């Protein structure tokens, strides 16, 4: 955080300050995730003096007399600050420090789907947030193509419906008994459906080509929004991508 928030000097070196602490109520370092998320984790929690890096004993986060002292005044000097810095501990300590009564009061922002997001949601019941910046650009492009994509979906649904009817007729002709005249009508209907399917398939393929052509006509910077190999972030063809399933 010091690297992100502190100012840089003219020679490029980093000035060390703790101004960024004002934006937080509690900072926990050395939390040793994922063990931090388990309340049965017996890790001790220490108060940190940011200026010196000194670790001070606490009673589950509560100030206590330090070794060689009869009062917790050394620790209390830091309690007037807007932010308290600790090292170690577990999620129970964090809930106590922030006066959390219900897990649903916590909105957790993590950068690892399984190590952070999934574990904190399933084990602790925290509400979770995942930031996916690539989606903003992808949604913009998908909005540009919304009419074409709607047409493609309708054509695909029409083709799938005809194919379902064809499969049903073929199954009936193969496994059910019909009079000769009924069977002839079904064979005739099957031929008509196959013709409709071929027409729907051609219309769908033509719409796909038009969609691809429209994408090619978009500015190069917009076309680069989708990965040139993997395509959309949340889709693989018409199915959800592996990443989308994880989310």
From TrEMBL:
- Keyword match Phosphoprotein: no
Task: Write down the InterPro entries for this protein, in alphabetical order.
Answer: HAD-like_sf (IPR036412), HAD-SF_hydro_IG_5-nucl (IPR008380), HAD_sf (IPR023214)
Could you cite one Gene Ontology molecular function of this protein?
metal ion binding
Q: Which UniProt keywords apply?
A: Coiled coil, Hydrolase, Magnesium, Metal-binding
- Keyword ATP-binding attached: no
The record ties this protein, via Pfam families, to: 5_nucleotid
Coiled coil: which residue ranges? Answer: 190-217
Q: Which Gene3D superfamilies match?
A: HAD superfamily/HAD-like
The entry sums up its family as follows: Belongs to the 5'(3')-deoxyribonucleotidase family.
Q: What is this protein called?
A: Uncharacterized protein
Organism field: Gossypium raimondii (Peruvian cotton)
